[in-house]
Fold:
Amino acid sequence: MKKLFPKSLLAIVLCCSAGIRVSAQNKDTIAPAPDQQPAAGLSLPLGNSQPQPYEIADITITGTQYLDKSLLVSLSGLNVGDKIVYPGGDQFAKAIQALWGQRLFANVAIYVTKIEDGKIWLEIDLQERPRLNNFVFRGVKKSETEELIKKASLRKGSVVTESMKQNAIGIISKHYADKGFRTAVVTITERVDTSQVNAADLVITVVKGGKAKVNDIFIIGNNNIDDSRVKKKMKGTKERTRFTLYPDSEPVWSDSNEVQENYWKTFGFLYPSRTLDQLDPYFRFKLFSSAKFNEGKYTEDKEKVIAYYNTQGYRDAVMVRDTTYTSHNGGVNVSMEINEGKKYYFGNITWKGNSRYNDSLLTRVLGIKKGDVYNQEMLSKRLLSSEGGDIGGMYMDFGYLFFRADPVEIGIHGDTIDYEIRISEGPQATIKEVRIAGNEKTNEHVIRRELRTLPGEKFSRTDLIRSNREIANLGFFNPEKIGMDPVPNIQDGTVDINYTVEEKANDQLELSAGWGGYIGLTGTLGVTFNNFSLRNIFRKETWDPLPSGDGQKLSVRVSSNGKAYRSYNFSFTEPWLGGKKRNQFSVSFYSSYQNPNAYSAYIYGSTLSNSAYFKVLGGSVSLGKQLKWPDDYFTLIYSLNYQQYKLKNYNYFNIPGFNNGTSNNINVKLTLARSSVNQQIYPSSGSNFMVSGQFTPPYSIFNPSRDYKLEAISNQFNFIEYQKYRFNAEWYVPLSRPKGSDNKVFVMKVAAKFGYIGRYDNRTTLSPFGRFELGGDGLSNFAIYDRDIISQRGYPVYYTSDPKQNQENGQPSGYEGFTVFNKYVMELRYPFSLNPSSTIFGLAFLEAANGYRDVKDYNPFRLRRSAGLGMRFYLPMFGLLGFDYGIGFDRIKNGSGLKDAAKFTFMLGFEPE
Structure:
């Protein structure tokens, strides 16, 4: 065997890799294994040791299992027919380097197997690196494994190299360091997998250790902005709060080591066996934030600090240097040095290129005056922002989709910067095509009729945002997944708009059942189809389970309490009567029956008869029209209503002489409403206003000679007369801005409500129908008497205007209901889930309300007050599920505490008034 390794090549080969051999062997000689051959000190090849040229006659590849041999020959740079010098040439060293550089092999060797007639035969022996067959994580949760595999780019079948393992260790270590595990240790062990040839498994072990906590944040160089303001901007890097308690004194809060060390110097004798490090945990605890150190968040916080300086006029502020190091108690100390630079102010601001709006109007909208503190972020937002109120919005609302505004510094005088804002208005863009995608159930015309962006009209950003709101308020789609994508066509000055939606289930089912002994079957069955299609009612292929897709609403509900009570309700709503305008048409019918003797008959074992009952039969027809003035958020609704009440030996109202008879209530109701909320289930902005008047014919005015005092009460109520007014107002104000993509924000809801019912003529007796009931959860059966139920959390139904006289145990004699009420509500809301399949939010509330027998008794400040907490769950199938725990402050009695003043409220299907 001839060994091919001249001394002239030894240094080159050793530089490539220790342990790589180049040898030659006779055809009949078996070369020792590559890992057994020495790396140096090899003898010269047999025969002529003088370099001679040879032609490569053949090249064979051995030792490979997965790689293409012809490709490997090509990679080596050696080809059949090439002239090489042997020994002494550098072609073999280059070939080894080329193959080794592929990082696919654990060993590379080249053998000369034959030399004859000026030709040379070569064998390239390769030892492939093992292939990754499997990987196992230890010390890692299953939920984290998938993310780590993706981040570290671990793929089965890839070649296992040291570089790959070190790269994975680095990525996994950084992953945990970003989560606060600064001391996390990652090791990777390679083991042979015998189930396959040349395969290996990787065992990845992670020892996380404890999360590092921020001990102190030291800031130097901040001469004009104090530490607290800088630290406040570091949302993801918080100091641990200290609590130092001096004997016989109030607690002292501190954000530095000085107070703690002074404590130790002064009162250390109380703990003679403990050092400062041991005492440290006793003076630190979490307050709303964990103070855990996160490398990624810290990097973001540094950028936020500089951005904050820029908003305060320090546009040259820089972070000179920063460092993090371990403190005496094992926590993390952060030190930052800031160079604030000079504080700048806005100077003169001029405009160039504007023709649509004059300079004075643009300056007024911009809202930046000479001498204001320099703030580049504010300037950019005032020019173009998605939040509204910007100059770009003014232009885009008139079709200038290609609008551009470039603020250019034209002069700096000391600390004052002059700007010239160069505007390129561009052409007005016309809407060319409007496309809708994602509506699998809802017909396209239902969505298209809600859009304010119509082909042929000028583009308007306000119309685009309004279209999004209208689609969301349909309730058929996930409001978080409504997409709006304007696609400008610069060549022809047009724009295409692509809307995307995601359907969500919004039909509702109400089902409950039980058995009440002699009373019989009790329960409720109700279904509401919120996207019904009446025109397809006779097309069987559209039933799933009923025809849908036209945006109509159909509701059917049957409720029974055995022989004591039953009711039937049906309603249908067409939101676009005629299909061309937003004219909402609704029709409803309902019937109810109540037997007051059912329970007593069951208790005393007597036979139930129809000797006493109360029946209600009613219906209504309404038409709502969207107005264009004062704006198109307004709606005017006309409704015609009829109720018939039949009483037989029924003395609920405690009105002498009104136990039997039939009463008819014919009335017209006019409602003016305005709604600008951004969505229905969890509104985070906008408002709702409603004012209504409900009027029966003034029968007493038509017959001035009628003497009501001589008539029986039952005759006066044959045809009921009254005038009734209601006012509701609700505001929703976001208290923070959305962070990330979840859109979760605190929302403040403020509401005020007022109601009044009165007579036309003082000669008449005001009907007990149509009055107001206050307190409770809004689920009272008073609704069958045509009463407005005004709930109040923390209180049961009450019957007196005096907050100190609740009279909660039964209805008092002579009570017919309140004629005036007012209610005020304040809620702080926060969503835990905005998923359309299960919207969940919590709330804290303050509430005040009261009812009054007469206008003379009305006092808007004599109120029952309550406070508490609640939860709301909106499920597509069942609608609203709500829970409130309220404390009525005016129910608190001396010495009883809060126990007797608290009340738990449950709601299902709707939010009570």
